[in-house]
What we know:
CATH architecture: Beta Barrel
Number of domains: 1
Mean pLDDT: 87
CATH topology: Porin
Number of helices: 4
Number of strands: 21
Structural class: mainly beta
Distance between the termini: 36 Å
Order of helices and strands: HHHEEEEEEEHEEEEEEEEEEEEEE
Oligomer: single chain
Amino acid sequence: xxxxxxxxxxxxxxxxxxxxxxxxxxxxxxxxxxxxxxxxxxxxxxxxxxxxxxxxxxxxxxxxxxxxxxxxxxxxxxxxxxxxxxxxxxxxxxxxxxxxxxxxxxxxxxxxxxxxxxxxxxxxxxxxxxxxxxxxxxxxxxxxxxxxxxxxxxxxxxxxxxxxxxxxxxxxxxxxxxxxxxxxxxxxxxxxxxxxxxxxxxxxxxxxxxxxxxxxxxxxxxxxxxxxxxxxxxxxxxxxxxxxxxxxxxxxxxxxxxxxxxxxxxxxxxxxxxxxxxxxxxxxxxxxxxxxxxxxxxxxxxxxxxxxxxxxxxxxxxxxxxxxxxxxxxxxxxxxxxxxxxxxxxxxxxxxxxxxxxxxxxxxxxxxxxxxxxxxxxxxxxxxxxxxxxxxxxxxxxxxxxxxxxxxxxxx
Length: 412
């Protein structure tokens, strides 16, 4: 088969898809989520009754449709106050340079949060265009060589809006050869597949699969062996119901297990954890007129963590969260450079925390929590369409300030 050289517009589309693959509101939808040694210690923050409500209300709205399309080089993300001493931050900064030959170099910085904590990625990559295909190699560039991750990626993009991407990640590629404090007895690898497809004129499908193969890490200084595995997947569609109405649906799930044992007592587990997460979102978007758009949604979340620690006094912790949300809002272009985008979020929470070894510590939350977000979006660059959104919020369940949030979308 002979491939014709890619046009400049096609190269720009693919480079945009490349940067999109390195970051999104939920990383696994568009980028791999590889094993990190941070998982040994786990996250250093807790979730309260409002944690997921805050995080969702601070992300761009509408939540589905339009935010995972073509993305160019630029600075994008948000930061919001979820507690007096805590920020929820998601950020991407990226740039692509195309060569005279059918090749490119690109850089992206990514700041993310997941169930194991907060982390950064500092990615530099180079690649080749081969007709409808693109091959690239990325490195998560760090000062310590044992912490460098290598990403190998193959993208097939036969037409605008359609693509399938395969990524293989080798975390801590040189860990075993660059230090002597520990060893991967089973090397971690991550296999990630994601894609979007225009199945019909009015129907687009998209999804991902992220598989972290079983990992076995021996830490000699602290004297433990750590085992971990995790899988996640998601599927969504966007359906145009008419000239003024569209429906989006997403479902995603995650399952992971881990175990930590002392090297001198391999039969006695210091820790065993099982994590399950599921999320379903359905959203209706309506164009009322040229300058006015409305969105309405339903969202259900469940999150379970069973953390057994036989040697701890409380025996470990069991977390069970069930949250059901109704939300909605409008986007009104009030002036040429100012769009008003207020939203309302009402969340029913049924959360429990149980301590098998010390039932007196058992706790939980059950009730309705709400937020009003009178967001104001300002167009700061007419040429690129760059915007900055100021998104203060008010708690509806106790008439108090609900935290401030700033969102930026600044294409280069």
